[in-house]
Amino acid sequence: MHTAIGSFQNRDGANRAVDRLVQAGIARDDVHIEHREAHADGTSPNSRWDGMEREVAVDEGAVRAFGNFFASLFGHGHLSSHADSYSQHVDRGGYVVIVDAHSGTDATRARSLLAELEANDLNLIDREGQRPLREIVASRSATPIAGTAGTADGGTSTD
User: Do residues 130 and 75 touch, judged by C-beta distance below 8 A?
Assistant: First the structure.
């Protein structure tokens, strides 16, 4: 799996990027925006992370248990610096657009489109052996938030 990823300072820029990527032929299920905005039901896309005491999350097992999106995406090995970088973008209120591509050519095309739209902190990452983005997003949406009975995290994507 190849992943193109970049950050935007505002929602409009991220939404334009998603629209442009889909118009270019990338499947909508392979594109995701990660952000901190609350959903209509009052939950935050990152409420598992934000709702826990951050010092607990220093433990690698706790990060996995709390569902940190970027740790799930990049794992805890050599790509963990990317997880830290993009988590910081989201913590500062930014929007991160992630695109999974099934070939290096498609990933390069997605990265080029993100660059044209003035994304920051652009990267093209080979996530060989990692779960596809759509599976990570789906599993997070289906998993209850710690400390709440039967409430699912609604942080899938924006349209």
Answer: yes
Q: Are 7 and 96 in contact (CB under 8 A)?
A: yes
Per-residue pLDDT tens digits for 137-146: 888 766 544 4
CB 66 within 8 A of CB 52: yes
- Write the pLDDT tens digit of every residue in 24-64: 999 999 999 998 764 434 444 444 434 333 333 344 443 33
62-74 burial code (b ≥16 CB/10 A, e <16): ebeebbbbbbbbb
- The span from the CA of 107 to the CA of 104, in Å, is 5
